[in-house]
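Data deposition worksheet. Section B asks for the primary sequence of the deposited chain exactly as it was used as input, without tags or linkers unless they were present during the calculation. Section C holds the resulting structure in token form. Section D is free text for depositor observations; keep each observation to a single sentence. Incomplete worksheets are returned to the depositor.
Section A, Depositor: J.P.
Section B:
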Amino acid sequence: MKVKPKIGPTHDAALFAEIQAAFDKYPDVAKNYSIQYIGGVVDVMNVDLERQVGMSNVQDREIVTKFVDRQPDPGPQPTDPGCFAWRLRANEWVCVTYMVQKPPG
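Section C:
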């Protein structure tokens, strides 16, 4: 049996306390955000977020994410409206998942 990772507010209490303080300071903005553990995606799907980016779309009320190789051209930047998941890397926020429109048809 695989051991579940020790994650969340109980295990990472100091981090979550700091996040809570930021959410308390900016309640109108905070209501639009949540915290997600991405280690499971990385481990289970063997995703390399340094090399790959998630491209998500909505299909029948489900969000479906496909991880693809990042292009050499930076393409959309972390501030683009399509970005909805970021990761801090070397003091810079990098987009790790974009919401893309499903092609018509």
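Section D:
The chain has two domains: 1-35, 50-105.
The chain is about 25% helix and 30% strand.
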